[in-house]
Specification:
This protein starts with 6 loop residues before the first helix and ends in a 10-residue tail after the last helix. The chain is flat and about 75 Å long. It has one domain: Orthogonal Bundle (MetI-like fold), CATH 1.10.3720. It is an all-alpha fold. 71% of the residues lie in helices and 0% in strands.
């Protein structure tokens, strides 16, 4: 009986039809662009200059100047991601009710088109020692120039990551917020639930899975900070993030094996945080999530 069914029909039943075959070139491209560099970098990280298998990793975790970069980067990426989410949720709820939603969304995501370097240059001209904002504060007589330092430190990088990361976080949050059926809120309101109760009992459980994904993606984006830490921070001090350590190993020490090991550690830290957030999401709520759109 099986021989009577054409081969094409049997393959189609298993999902191997003409449309699926069109995906193969894209899959091959992904393998070439991502899996091969990752595999090569992982292999290279186990080939240190001293010849030992784990020499690069032993050097990294035995040198505070290197392993402290993990916590320095986390101290930037985690707070920035949380603050961006705290801003994005109420703004998204407000924007979804406005008539000119597309126009407002375009204005809010405009900073993402500027790029990290252009944002850093603008912040230096605005918040720098001779910037407009600094001079305005000094002109009030309440501050002196030496007491105002908003760039070349932790807060300069923090503000830069907020400006460049908020549009991305907002877009993801808005897609989940607008994906919730308005009928659920109306039903809760009909039953007497106030706005805070509707958010806590209706919206929040449906948003948690989406907000967890948004947190993970925004965190990964913030954790890879490099230009902001160099241009607006103190790359030899408080904002020496792990990407700077990898850059210095590769292009100052010309130790590509150590740089690969640092990159692998960087990826592992991000993976641990992402897995932890997704595990907490499953503990908080299990059920249908709001469908994202847009």
């Amino acid at each position: 009986m099986a021989d009577a069914i054409p081969l094409r029909a049997r393959l189609a039943a298993k999902g191997l039809d003409g449309v699926t075959l069109l995906v193969l070139p894209a899959a091959a491209l992904l393998l070439a662009l991502f899996l091969y560099p990752f595999g090569y970098g992982l292999w290279l990280s186990f080939r240190p200059k001293d010849g030992s298998l784990l020499g690069n990793y032993a050097r990294f975790f035995s040198d505070p100047f290197l392993y402290d970069t993990i916590f320095t980067t986390l101290a930037l990426a985690v707070p920035v991601t949380i603050v961006n989410l705290l801003f994005a949720v109420p703004v998204a709820f407000r924007v979804r009710l406005m008539r000119h939603q597309r126009l407002l969304t375009t204005i809010l995501v405009l900073p993402i088109t500027l790029g990290t370097v252009l944002v850093a240059e603008g912040m230096l001209n605005y918040f720098g020692p001779q910037g407009w904002f600094t001079r305005a504060l000094v002109s009030t007589g309440l501050f002196n120039a030496s007491s105002i330092k908003l760039v070349h430190n932790y807060w300069g990088v923090f503000l830069s990551l907020l400006i460049t990361g908020f549009p991305f976080t907002f877009l993801l949050t808005l897609s989940y917020v607008t994906g919730i059926d308005p009928g659920l809120e109306q039903a809760a309101a009909t039953l007497g639930a106030r706005a805070a109760e509707r958010f806590r009992h209706v919206f929040l459980p449906l948003l948690v899975p989406g907000l967890a994904i948004t947190f993970c993606l925004s965190f990964v984006q913030a954790y890879s900070v490099f230009p902001s830490a160099v241009l607006l921070g103190a790359p030899a001090g408080p904002t020496r993030v792990i990407s700077i350590a990898a850059y210095q190993a590769a292009f100052e020490e010309y130790d590509y094996s150590l740089a690969s090991a640092i990159a692998m550690i960087m990826g592992a830290v991000q993976l641990v945080v992402v897995v932890a957030v997704l595990a907490l999401r499953n503990l908080f709520y299990r059920g249908p999530a709001a469908g994202a759109k847009g």
